[in-house]
Design a protein that fits this description.
The complex is a heterodimer of chains A (604) and B (128). Chain A contains 23 helices and 18 strands. The termini of chain A are far apart. By secondary structure, chain B is an alpha+beta fold. Chain B has helices at 6-20, 37-42, 44-58, 97-108; strands at residues 29-34, 63-68, 80-84, 90-92, 118-121. Chain B has a 5-stranded mixed beta sheet, covered by helices on one side. In chain B, helix 3 packs across helix 4. Chain B is elongated, with a radius of gyration of 17 Å. Classes of the chains: A alpha/beta (604), B alpha+beta (128). The A-B interface holds A 1-6, 8, 38-39, 41, 60-63, 82-86, 100, 124-125, 131-132, 134-137, 139-140, 143, 146-147, 255-258, 262, 264-266 and B 1-6, 9-10, 12-13, 15-20, 22-25, 27, 30, 33-37, 40, 48, 51-52, 55-56, 64-69, 128.
Chain lengths: 604, 128
């Protein structure tokens, strides 16, 4: 059946929670009502990435992009666009600082500046239909490998591409595969790490939700290369939609003979099972993950025993992150040379020589376009924040960007032209991590941000080694004191000292990098720490104990709006006369500051 | 279901591509049926059905069908614009089902403009 128009409704978790499934039903109903069901197909797709504007729908082949759709919009939209062929301007995207809606998807800077490799099928296929994946060259990389490449050739190809682990460490994938192939022991395992735990990160979830077969295909190719017959997807319980879609994909692949015995009639056996984790941050660490897979407590172990030799059940195991696996089929089909042509550095001698391909980031925080993006390696932070991200909303000033999740660091405004690659990010005290990216503006306090990440890590530390268990707790206490105005001389030096002990003495990668948020904020924003400690002042006006709210009598019109909203009855005054805040009653919630229409509430 | 062999992947790809290729806007030619109120009243829906029917029958994979609004010349509806990649678009007027079939076969498939039904070559000048 041929259709003239496809309505691609985004059904990633973001859009679903904004009502995408109800929207899909309403669209189908309206399409039927108008007698268009033989011409118009409503399709649900994986995450589009523009989560801040959901629910989202793209009309193809017109390429028109609609956002923030409501059920009430449906009858009008169907009548205008599908029946009369007039795209509905008021439902289109308007970029910041522009007034004209942009109808074409590729003309929207958010999409136009991205380069999709890992997310190549996002929004284009129905993730629950294996044939749509096959139609986009799905499983043809696996077919190519099985029909014409020796395992060693596959490994050479991955090495030559310069692909490095997307989960955080940036270890060259090809080298890992090679060590695992050479390791003694049978059977061997491939594992997909989908235990995405960074606050605000949702790359892996979106990939599995939107294109589960690409992960499966990558794992099958990896298994062929290292000589494994069994794979596991380790995914957190908090990702029910991803688990559901991945299981559907596994079932379909088995039915089509793309998993199981004698895949594609080429004599290769491979199968995958899903293992759900309870959502502990530390289980994203490879050795802790394998312990959890075995049914033990998720605690890491010392790194000198390599998992490629002694991994799951003490057997050779190759663990890669979701995004790494999805890159594999593309490299096989397009060639290592093509992949290595994207991104900085030279990988012709060693895969350590550069950062190649693209990286998926979840862009969050104080930025206009929040969502999921994929950009070529080597793009500057400026391009990510201001072009793809659309800049800082509400006319505020950019302050820093935090990369690499809770173990990453803050990169200040003066380094905004830094190209994003594995090695450059480490040089400035941060890291690529799995790809969380939080933009911070002038209204964020850096001490408070560091405290937030440290508190997160205190809760997630497994407690096995002393530096991480004790060091982080003490860091949290010191930061807590500083934000309360009880900071002491030498607190900064003490924080730095604990940070160095963590780097040197913690057992696993999480502990070793856990001090990054603190060390990088001290490195770039020392004056903010000093203001808190010496002047008992929070320059960004965030730390409650260090600020006071006052009313500017000149500006106050006595409208009494603040009186109405104040939860602690701290504001008083006659109507049409200047009001006052009783600081003994004030709980510093800031609601008067937000509601005042005359900028009469001052934060000091 | 029968387990797939390597050759089967290509067969599935071709089958599904017919349905999905228009999502990528990757067509050799595009036919736009003008479906403003005037066009619909004059029978544009039938013109659309003819196109879908032809594409089905001839198993065409690289032609996109789109709708757009009134082309401005309401008295000559139904209208359609045929764009073959790399060539100037051609507007056809006063269409009937038979005319549309002929245009599809001769112009879209073979590249010969059906002069007697054509109104003009090219598009209007726009500021956007």
């Amino acid at each position: 059946m041929a259709y003239r128009t496809h309505l691609m409704v985004c059904a990633g978790t973001g859009c679903v929670s904004n009502g995408a499934l109800r929207l899909k039903e309403a669209l189908e109903k309206e399409v039927r009502k108008r007698g268009l069901e033989d011409e118009v197909l409503v399709v649900t797709t994986g995450c589009n990435g523009f989560c801040g504007q959901g629910p989202i729908m793209v009309v193809q082949p017109d390429g028109v992009f609609y956002q923030r759709l409501k059920i009430e919009d449906v009858p009008y939209l169907v009548e205008e666009h599908l029946l009369k062929g007039r795209p509905v301007k008021k439902l289109m995207h308007v970029p910041p600082k522009e007034e004209k809606p942009i109808p074409k998807m590729m003309d929207i800077p958010f999409f136009g500046d991205q380069l999709l490799v890992a997310l190549r099928n996002r929004g284009l296929i129905d993730p629950e239909n294996i044939e749509e994946y096959i139609a986009r060259d799905g499983y043809s990389a696996l077919a190519k490998v099985l029909a014409s490449m020796a395992p060693e050739e596959v490994i050479e190809e991955i090495k030559a591409s310069g692909l490095r682990g997307r989960g955080g460490g940036g270890f060259p994938t090809g080298i890992k595969w090679e060590s695992c192939r050479k390791a003694k022991g049978i059977p061997k395992y491939v594992i997909c790490n989908a235990d995405e735990g960074d606050p605000g990160a949702f790359m892996d979830r979106s990939i599995i939700e939107g294109d589960p077969h690409s992960v499966l295909e990558g794992m099958a190719i990896g298994a062929y290369a290292i000589g494994a017959e069994q794979g596991y997807l380790y995914v957190r319980m908090e990702y029910p939609l991803a688990i559901k879609r991945f299981n559907i994909a596994v079932e379909q692949a088995r039915e089509y003979g793309l998993l199981g015995r004698d895949i594609l009639g080429a004599g290769f056996d491979f199968d995958v099972e899903v293992r759900r984790g309870a959502g502990a941050f530390v289980c994203g660490e490879s050795t802790a993950l394998m312990a959890s897979l075995e049914g033990r407590v998720g605690e890491p172990r010392a790194k000198y025993i390599h998992t490629v030799e002694h991994g799951l059940w003490n057997l050779p195991s190759c663990l890669n992150n979701v995004e790494t696996w999805t890159n594999v089929p593309v490299i096989i089909l397009q060639g290592a040379k093509w992949f290595a042509s994207i991104g900085p550095g030279d990988v012709s001698r060693s895969p350590w020589g550069g950062s190649k391909g693209t990286k998926v980031f979840s862009l969050a925080g104080k930025v206009y376009n929040t969502g999921l993006i994929e950009v070529p390696m080597g793009i500057t932070l400026r391009d990510i924040v201001f072009k793809v991200g659309g800049g800082i909303p509400n006319g505020k000033r950019f302050k820093a960007v935090q990369t690499g999740g809770p173990s990453g660091g803050f990169i200040p405004e003066r380094l905004i032209d830094l190209p994003v690659d594995f090695d450059r990010l480490v040089e400035v005290g941060s890291m690529m991590g799995s790809g969380g990216m939080v933009v911070v503006d002038e209204e964020n306090c850096m001490v408070d941000m560091a405290k937030y990440f440290v508190s997160f890590l205190v809760g997630e530390s497994c407690g096995k080694c002393v530096p991480c268990r004790e060091g982080l707790k003490r860091m949290e206490e010191i930061l807590e004191r500083i934000t309360k105005g009880e900071g002491k001389e030498r607190d900064i030096e003490l924080l730095e000292e604990i940070g160095i002990i963590l780097e040197d003495g913690a057992l696993c990668g999480l502990g070793q990098s856990a001090a990054n948020p603190v060390l990088s904020t001290i490195r770039y924003f020392r004056e903010e720490y000093e203001a808190h400690i010496k002047e008992k002042r929070c320059p960004a006006g965030v730390c409650k104990e260090l600020i006071e709210y006052e009313i500017d009598e000149e500006k106050c019109t006595g409208c009494a709006l603040c009186v109405k909203v104040c939860p602690s009855e701290a504001v008083s005054g006659e109507l049409k006369e200047p009001h006052k805040i009783d600081s003994s009653k004030c709980i510093k919630c800031g609601i008067c500051y937000e509601v005042c229409r005359f900028d009469a509430v001052l934060k000091k | 279901m029968k387990k797939l062999k390597i050759e089967d992947l290509k067969r599935i790809k071709e089958k599904v591509r017919r349905i999905t290729n228009l999502r990528e806007g990757a067509g050799r030619a595009k036919v736009t049926v003008h479906m403003g109120t005037c066009g619909i009243a004059a029978g544009a829906r039938k013109i659309m059905s003819v196109l879908i029917d032809e594409i089905e029958k001839q198993d065409v994979k690289d032609v996109l069908i789109a709708t757009s609004g009134c082309a401005g010349l309401c008295s000559r509806e139904p209208m359609a614009t045929v764009e073959v990649l790399g060539k100037a678009p051609v507007k056809y007027v006063d269409l009937t089902e038979e005319k549309m079939r002929r245009i599809f076969r001769e112009h879209v498939m073979e590249g010969n403009v059906v002069k007697e039904y054509a109104l003009a070559l090219g598009s209007e000048r726009t500021s956007f």
